Model the fold of this input.
Amino acid sequence: MNSSVNDFVSLVVNNHAIDTKDEMIAAVCRNFPMVKDGRALYHTDYFAVVFCYTKNASFSNVVISLSKLEKYDGIPCFVVVVRRGLDNLIYMINTTFIDKVSHSSQSLRIDNIRGSVLGSNIRKQLPEIDRVNSPEFFDELFSYHQGFTWIENLERIVERTNNIRPVKVKTELNHSEYLNLLDAPRRAS
Done:
């Protein structure tokens, strides 16, 4: 990776205690010639980054649309998670590191790129190469990512997204339960 990518990652890691998204964006923009693309993505010629904020340890925010990620998938892409009262996190989010996109993306196909990447869709563990998605491995992870094409990653994401199944079982009512349900408004009045 380009040295400016490593400098960016070091800046984020060294400023792990910044606890507002705006403060983190300002720190990054002071040090790198960032261009804003849309609402939340910033980029240089060498890397792209999305900044997210969470009030606690969980991270299920919408990070980026899959179509926006396609545009930057050839350079290292990151999400910086600014966490109030906790150390901040940084993950690589190129398509190799995306498990699936949001379950509401049911019409996602190879020829119909849609859907959002949630924080929970980012692969934190990569057992196939015995690595975790963290700064000390970003050089290796990006090299690994470069071994796949956009189409190969998209095919995997489409398959994983289309295999999402609801956890809850649909409630089946018998005839008397159905009649009881229909009678509920009368009983409530």
In short: The chain has seven helices and nine strands. The first helix runs from residue 3 to 14. The mean pLDDT is 91. Strands lie at 35-37, 41-43, 48-54, 62-65, 77-83, 89-92, 116-118, 125-126, 131-132.
